[in-house]
Amino acid sequence: MSDHIHFIITGGTIDSYYDPVKETAVPSEHSYIPEFIKVLKLYDSISHREIFMKDSRDINDADRDEILNEIKKNKAKRIIITHGSYTVVDTAKYLEKNLKKTDKTIIFVCSLIPIKGFSPSDAGFNLGYAVAKSQDLKNGLYVCMNGKVFDPNDVVKILSEGRFSSIYTK
Question: Which of 34-43, 45-54, 76-85 shows the lowest per-residue confidence on average (mean pLDDT)?
Fold first, then answer.
């Protein structure tokens, strides 16, 4: 199923709205990602599963096990996981440790600005970039952000710059 992409949806800023009372982004009740992807009219067949809709700071190992189980049971060879940026690296490393070896290309993607209701937003670009890279990357786990592919063991979120970077470069 190399011409199929399965999206695993977990919430995060990419799928949030701004709550003026809390003065922060809050995960939406349900994902906007499937609707957004449909508009792109991709040539690949698409499926998705909304596992949960959480701020990534609230994701725990039981949640990560749910993501892991979804990866294991799904036949798709290309999987894109939408996730919050605060703990995306933790979840990617958890999956890498617990998957051991995989015959799938698994890409984590997030954004610093929600996909719906904000313009401009990095969310659409980051999603499109993840879809494009899913065609080229070899099997394994990756984080795609800001037009770059990162190894989960080589990436850090730089809050002061509002982007991700390699821990090995300046």
Answer: 34-43
**What is the band of 170 on the pLDDT scale with cuts at 50, 70, 90?**
low
Whether the per-residue pLDDT at 1 is higher than 70: the answer is: no
Residues paired with residue 148 on neighbouring β-strands, in sequence order? 145
3-state per-residue secondary structure call for the chain: CCCEEEEEEEECHHHEEEECCCCEEEECCCCCHHHHHHHHCCCCEEEEEEEEEECHHHCCHHHHHHHHHHHHHCCCCEEEEECCCCCHHHHHHHHHHHHCCCCCEEEEECCCCCCCCCCCCCHHHHHHHHHHHHCCCCCEEEEEECCEEECHHHEEEECCCCEEEECCCC
Contact (CB, 8 A) for 137 and 107: yes
Higher pLDDT, 100 or 140: 140
- Residue 151: band (very low, low, confident or very high) from pLDDT cuts 50, 70, 90: very high
Tell the residue number behind the tokens 């490393």, with chain if given: 93
Q: Is the pLDDT of residue 106 over 70?
A: yes
- Measured CA to CA, the distance from residue 141 to residue 151 in angstroms comes to 7
161 phi and psi angles, rounded to 5 deg: -105, -10
